[in-house]
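Throughout our pipeline, every protein is held as a single compact record rather than as scattered files. The record that follows is passed on verbatim for readers who wish to inspect the format.
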Amino acid sequence: MGMLLLNERERWVFWLPVALGTGIALYFALPLEPPLWVGAVGAAGFALVAWSGRRLLPLWIAAVYLSLVFTGFFTATLRTVLVAAPRLDHATWVIPLQGRLLAVQPAADGERLLLDRLTDPKGGMGEHPPRLIRVHLAHGGQDLHPGQILSFEASLMPPPPPVLPGGYDFARVAWFEGLGAVGYITTPPAIIGEARPRGWGERLTQTVRRWRGALSARINQAMAARGLPEGTGATAAALITGERGAVPPAVLQAYRDAGLAHILVIAGMHMSMVAGLVYGAVRGLLAAVPPLALRFPIKKWTAAAALMVTFGYLVLSGAPVPTQRAFIMNGFVLLAVLLDREALSLRTITWAATAVLLLQPEALTGASFQLSFAAVTMLISGYEILAPRLARLRGRGGWAGVLLLEGAGILLTTLLAAAGTAFYALYHFNRFSAYALLGNLLAVPVVGFWVMPAALLAMLLLPLGLDGPAWGLMGHGLQVVDRIAMVVAGLPGAVLSVPPPPLAALVLFTLGGLWLLLWRRSWRVLGLVPMAAALVLTALSVPPDLLVDDGGRVVAARLPGPRLAFNRVAGGRMLQDSWRQQMGLSGGRATALGADDPVRCDDFGCVVRLKGQRVALPERREALADDCRLASLIIAPYAVHCPPGTAALVLDGPLLRRTGAHRLWFTDQGPRMEWVAQGEGRRPWTPFAFIAPGITP
């Protein structure tokens, strides 16, 4: 093993972000918040061991790796402390508020407003009100822009926990964004003035946000003036400013089902296209002037120009994680040109991942980070293997051979990216696009040769006020992409919906994939073993039989079909859709529990029979006497007290509000349960009402 590691020493650096990520993952997996000194002491201690045992290669490698693991652990702990901000500890009624508008985020059903400098005249938010809130505004946001002081009435709540154990943790995301409450505005906001920025940082941020809003409005206006649908303008704005909230849900779903959702996320493809277009155009212009081309390093000038433009694109997009990663990677490539070094390699992705993990360690847990880095690592490693073979094919067959090779390159790139991201898409979105290869083969050339060049031309013409036709040209290109997405998404079997793999499978697949891709010699194939184990775990994973929300109001049973049936059809549409997605079921209208044979419902409630278990869902307290005597499980939104000696297990409202949503499996040994508080632990972002981890409901 030591000799094998020594033979691969030039690739040791590629494991730097892996070690940091391991420490970050361990931090987020803890049930309790660790002291800040744990990571620092561990990193320093193992660094000292590495220095002392530097003559013993196995000891030195192990100590260095563990020191980096603790460095990642410390970075995540420190980040949690640095972003700490007050948050709401209870839901409020409608209360009057006043605050400064930071951002207006378009949404399909209105706008989301981000506000700070809050004034709470009646003290409805408590003694420690949040510094930052996000509220939904259904109507009347057309005249709003960042910097305004608004007066309004709103209903607020703390950032909600996952709707199921292991689900998307918005409360944790909100903690790292400094978001202390969410809610909705109940009255049209009144503009009562303009807030003065404090310092150059706030002034710059406010200017960029206003610019993004104005640019989105300009794009929509220009496309509407040319008869293009409103949704096309929203899609175009998503490609330029990163604001995807206003993209029509039907279009967004078609992009997802066709495997084209990455087109709407400003990431490597867009950044590379912009950098390539700028690089080609600027170098062509400079080369057309012989005195410049012969006397000066125009290649480096061109790289510097492309670097500045891509930085502007980063700022304009709001700098989400995929765009940060894309900018860092493209920045390394362009810097390599400036320094006469090799451009694109695994070293580039290594330093990009390291930078993101050190600056935003919480990004590791998100789908965006995992998908983007998995795709790029797979692409670079794949082309590293295939590059010599592809090089031998270049220059053969004339122009027809060139076109064939370019088409094969698009096909190969799509195959590699799809292979690298498929498991992560299954884990986070519970769906696999069967025709992603076809969709990308048709759509990516349109984006690369039509949509993005038109967008770049529009941005160049914007200061002159001549950008309208270019936006129109971009819009017509996007309509072609929309049509491709709709057609591909409409093909039979376009989407495979599956239950999410367990977390252990994700860990095994990731470690195995890294082992396979980061090493060069034949022992890399050992990575296939944990990857195969991950697939086996996924195949053996059994979806739960019953789902319960965090108040006992909504219950869903998995019935033959398979399908989910709910006890409450009205209301809770977002919750129901989320549960269907996490259960690997396609959409469709909700079905009441009373419509299925294993269920009996009346005015007093419902009784569900699953795998020999009798589950009671009493709507009225009068049903409790029989339910306590006959049922094996009672789920109710109010407090339930069964007489001593009854065998019923009770999940009532007070307990569910303290433990969160539940998943239940019925086995021969009785029900097996998982609940949100169990996985969340006692961390800074967990709801105040949650009980300590480890308690058995």
